[in-house]
Structures are given as C-alpha cells and as structure tokens.
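Teaching soon. Got one?

===
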Amino acid sequence: MKCAFAFAVVLVLSMGTMAQTAVPPGTVLPLRLSTSVDARRVKPGQTVVAQIMQRVSLPSGSLARGTKVLGQVVRVSTGDRAPATLALRFDRLLSAGGVVPMQTSLRAIASYMAVGEAEVPISGPDRGNANPWDWTTEQIGGDIVYRGGGPVVDPGGNAVGKPVDDGVLDVVEAQPGSRCSRDVAANEPPQAFWVFSAGACGVYGWYDIAIQHAGHSEPQGEIVLASSKPDLKLPSGTGLLLRVVAPAGGEARR
C-alpha cells in the first residue's frame, strides 16, 4: 500500500515537472474566451478564462481541445469621453500535471461573429452538405481550407498547411512590416491554428479596437487593447491566437 502511494506521489510530481517544460516558446495557442470581459465592469486582478480549441502538439505530448488557459486583468481605463484601454495577461495553463506558468503574446484577436463565419462553408453546394469534413471554408485572415483531402492555401494560392478534424495545421507565416514579422525557433513545424490563417495578425471583426501592446517586449506577456470608444467589451466566444514567448520569468522571444 505504501509502495503504491509512493509511486502515485512520484507520478504526480513527474507530471508536474513535465508540465512546467511542456509548452516551449513559439507554441501557438488557439483560444476562445469562455467569459466576457467588459472594461466598464472588470477590475484589476479579475480572472479571465479561455479554452484551447484545437489539440496542440508538444515535444512531451499534447494539450487537448478544451484545456483551460487562465489570464487576469492587469489594468483598465474607461471614461465618458476618453478611449478605453484594457490590459490582460494570459499566464497560466491548467494541464493534467497541474498549473503551468507561461508568458504569452497576442498574435490575433477576432470577434465571435468572425469566428462563426470561419466555421461555416463559404458558399454554394457546401452549405447543403451535412458533412463538415467536405466543406470549403475561409479562415480568419483569408486562408482557404479545402477539406476532404485538399490543402490549406493562403490568399496568394500557396499551400501553408492541411485540415484536421478540429481545425488546421499550418506553418507560421511572418508578416513583413507588421508586429508579426519576426521569426521564432518554432516557426517550422506545423501548428494548431483552429479558425485562424497562418499569417493572421491583428484585429478581425472590430473597427474600433486595436492591439496597443502585443506582449513581446517589455512589459513581457502584457497584452493591451485600446478602443476608439469610451468602452471596450470582449464577449464570450471571442477568438484569440496567442503565442508562448517564454516560460514564466524567462526571456521572451518573438
């Protein structure tokens, strides 16, 4: 009995150790907000919950669809006339081995309507087809997904990945002249992009929200969104494309 207990303790500790190193810099995390974030209502320190929407492969295993990612409100500013700002950190992942601290940056954010449009066929006969695996869809950012054996192609017609059951596997594309222009070590292996394009970068579905700070540079891991209006609200269902820039307390990489 004691041996079994000791083995269980060692197993749990081992899983926890694996979890601490399981999400290397460069890993893409496609998320959907599980809670709404209203700048007029939230306070600093409040928890924000999201979940991974496509299985993410890692050197030590994988993160299942539905894995929770936790963040927090860092600060918020609203007013009657001044533009609203909202600072967030997504810095904890709940794995089977426990809580995994990390630092993340924001590559792209999309409204729930933009997410919904990317989850249905583009047009034509696909809309009458009950089998989603045969649909042709358009990703957030313009990539086209030819399911049923086809590739994923970017707006220029170049193959950038392939469809899978819960999303797509793409090779990360840099965007010259943008904040997504620089490479990291993990650009080469295909990664989980869910409904986002390989080159998705910036804000989609909103015209009054901008990414003021993505979290690559100091303060590392801090994501700041700014609105041209006095309020800023991210409804439940908002899509996020995060990228791990460093383990917690580590040196960030873009």
The chain has one domain: 27-246. The radius of gyration is 19 Å.
